Here is the input.
Amino acid sequence: MEILENVENNPGWVKSKETKAVLNSDLAALNQYKINKQKNIQVVSMQTEVGNLKNEISNIKSDVSDIKNLLLQILNNTNK
Here is the structure.
């Protein structure tokens, strides 16, 4: 069984006597980190989605403009 000792002047940190590894034992900080990481992933996903929607809107505007120009050409050709 691994024995842990507190790290001097660093509350929330412990050191393994066996492996000499320093570990963070602050579970509240770990949980907050996980929450923040998940929020960041969601923000990046939303930013990507917004970018995709902007591109889609731009394409639709271009298509509508093309249709408008074609209709104007048809109208001009029938009036001649």
Notes: The mean pLDDT is 93.
